[in-house]
Amino acid sequence: MTIKELLRNKRLGHEWSEDSIRSFVDGLTTKKVSSAQAGAFLMAACIHGLTPRETATLTQAMASSGITVPTNGLERPCIDKHSTGGVGDKVSLLLAPLAVACGLAVPMISGRGLGHTGGTIDKLESIPGFNTSLSVQRMRELLEQHHVFMAAQTDECAPADGILYALRDVTGTVEDVGLITASILSKKISEGISGLVMDIKSGEGAFFPNLDDGRTLGTSIRTVAGHAGIQSAIVYSDMSIPLGRAVGNWLEVVESEQALREFASCDHRLRAVTIHCVAEMVLMGGLTNSIEEARTRVVDKWLDGSGYREFLGMIERQGGVLVDGHVRQESACSQSITSPVSMVMPCLPAREVAIAVMEAGGGRLVDGDVIDNTAGCVIVADPGMPVESGQVLMHVSAATTERCSALAEALESIIERAKARGIHEPPDVIIDVDR
Description:
Helices cover about 50% and strands about 15% of the residues. By secondary structure, the chain is an alpha/beta fold.
């Protein structure tokens, strides 16, 4: 069939054959399939869904569209972690160096922001000079010598997924389980890993507000990963409020550095998710005999500064600029939001905060948008904390005074609506684990 005929069949809800899927994926990388046709496929797949067979075939076809990072002969187990994305979710920035400090190798190919959520690559690229465009040869060198890299997709690793990933963000087709499974696992297969810890978010700030939908994705991930010979563990975590205090690419990098440098300063929910995900990786890699031992090892490496040193080393090796041993502070317009009355700080809805930051330039509204890495906010007052009139609740920043003021105004409205909801205690951040 021609691509047009295939798309018509998919629009009608028909299942594609394995050959049709492979032909379509090949067309993506050879540019025989246009962006408009790829977008049409994504929309049809999102409306009708992909069958388990289609999902598995699409995953393998996208992984085979490039080459795999050679990990044979490495002295450490190669384990990675992936998240479905969330608001303020900077776990990967803390997790990768901590996992290396614990004795693992972490080859991490990540993505950019999707929908209202930020992407690990966008955060890393807010660090001046940081290079996420690594060749497979350089990835292998970093793994051999330093046990970690954090990189974006290139034309070498799962390039077909890179094409679809960018289109999903701007065509409103992010949430489909089959597309998510294929996107995640095609990248992970190309990393050459033996194990994957999957952090699936649930709550109003997640792609899957309903936990049952998240579990459906977890089942899909475990099934397709198993077919690919990759061991997996699924962590279900809450995303009803922002994770950590910072929302916005640069501000999240700054928070990550401070958290690794000072264990006690790390937001307790961010700390809990990070420790648990790294511990699952350590257990999966066979470095401990129980999850309790693994958690102890993670905390020890955090407290003794090993994770922090790995973080700084990774930044320097990939070209990131450090000033006086720290990530360089970006200049931006800033202002503070203070409480107009004495009150108890409410839980802020994650999605609303993320959209406000996006509209201030912190995310992509259309394909090709240039992100303002300085746009974002830092939540000073924790949920449930009593605050006095005039006390600072949040710090806000953006590239221009106008954007900064608009973001502050939007966040003030969000705080007022959150007060009316009257929710002050966030739910437990770890919901469940499937290993």
